[in-house]
Design brief:
Length: 369
């Protein structure tokens, strides 16, 4: 393995792979695999890293190892999530993903929280954008791989707690005018929690209660007065959009309406995000508004002049309809307006105007005339 000759390295890798496949339990095999694991992370050659990764994963998954020995090997790759060079951190994330996909269910259930905490630290703290994206993708793999029982609920609760706790700490740091690094760290926690909730929602395993609880956490944060960076707001809005895209197995329309009602505090502050300085946030907010109007009936809704309709319930605050209509019109005056955002804004404007015509009592619009 230390030879510069490609042929010599290839022959050595074939021999090691055969030895691992045969499950030959010798001290030298363990030492060799340890060296191979280092090369899987730190080798300059991408092809050599890939070959060593396959051997390391094969050893961990198929070799007769106890729980303690498995954890020792996992700790090596987790430690290298903070490797100084991005290619090494990316390699470690790739190895962890391969392990999650191939590790026996029993072992995965025992190690899932360890994987979760390790990946969350990368999502929240890594300086390299590609590493953060890879870690977020790995979280999706983790939520999809574990069962929908106790461990899934535990990871979901941890994700919710990251959002709620991070916001409280950020508010406290701001009030006390503490060190800027601490405030940024708290903001990173919020963002990582939102990304984790989005990953969980894509697993298709959320129950109605879990979906509602996750949405309540996000709505509470988005409708609060806490100052947040645009990155945090974007992550929170994207997680909300992802959760709303989850389709319940039964009673889809009824449950969708219930979710919309629970989001009333957010809809009452939607204009803040529709006029945000960052276009990405305006775009996500516009998509959320479009989804909401569709759930409320859209242009196909019957003419209902009653305060009991879903639209009237959600838009009952005086002036809200007027404010949002004005906000949608102001969006066309933005210096940066993509075609997608302009199209979504126009759809929202026409749909909302149509809904007001069908439900004139909403927001006391008739009185404001």
């Amino acid at each position: 393995m230390e030879q510069n000759s490609v042929e010599a390295r290839s022959a050595a890798l074939v021999l090691i792979r055969s030895t691992v496949s045969a499950r030959i339990s010798l001290p030298e095999v363990y030492d060799t695999v340890e060296h191979v694991s280092k090369l899987a992370v730190r080798a300059q050659s991408a092809s050599l890293r890939t070959a060593c990764t396959n051997i390391a994963v094969q050893f961990l998954v198929n070799f007769p190892l106890g729980n303690k020995r498995i954890r020792q090997h996992l700790e090596f790759f987790v430690r290298n999530l903070s490797y100084e060079h991005p290619h090494g951190r990316m390699a470690s994330i790739g190895i962890i993903v391969a392990i999650i996909q191939k590790l026996p269910e029993k072992n995965l259930e025992e190690e899932c929280e360890y994987f979760f905490i390790s990946l969350i630290s990368v999502v929240s703290r890594d300086a390299d954008q590609q590493c953060r994206k890879a870690a977020a993708s790995a979280l999706k793999t983790l939520f999809a791989a574990i069962g929908d029982g106790r461990n899934f609920s535990a990871l979901l609760s941890m994700s919710q707690a990251l959002v709620a706790t991070g916001v409280k700490k950020a508010a406290s740091s701001s009030a006390l005018a503490s060190d800027c690094d601490d405030a940024n760290a708290d903001a990173d926690i919020v963002r990582s929690g939102a990304i984790a909730l989005s990953s969980a929602s894509q697993s298709g395993k959320l129950s109605k209660g879990q979906l509602q609880d996750s949405l309540n956490v996000l709505v509470s944060v988005l409708s609060s007065k806490t100052s947040q960076s645009w990155e945090d707001v974007h992550a929170l809005l994207c997680a909300t959009e992802q959760l709303l895209s989850v389709q319940p197995e039964n009673g889809q329309m009824q449950e969708s309406c219930e979710l919309q009602v629970s989001m009333k505090p957010f809809w009452e502050s939607i204009e803040i995000y529709l006029l945000h300085r960052h276009e990405w946030i305006r775009h996500v907010a516009a998509r959320l508004l479009g989804r909401h109007l569709s759930a409320a009936g859209g242009r196909n809704a019957p003419i209902i002049n009653t305060n009991k309709s879903l639209f009237c319930i959600l838009w009952s605050r005086n002036g809200l309809v007027r404010d949002v209509l004005r906000t949608l019109c102001l969006q066309f005056e933005a210096k940066q307006l993509s075609n997608e955002l302009a199209k979504q804004t126009l759809k929202n404007l026409l749909c909302l105007a149509n809904m007001v015509w069908r439900c004139p009592s909403a927001g006391n619009v008739s009185e404001e005339r």
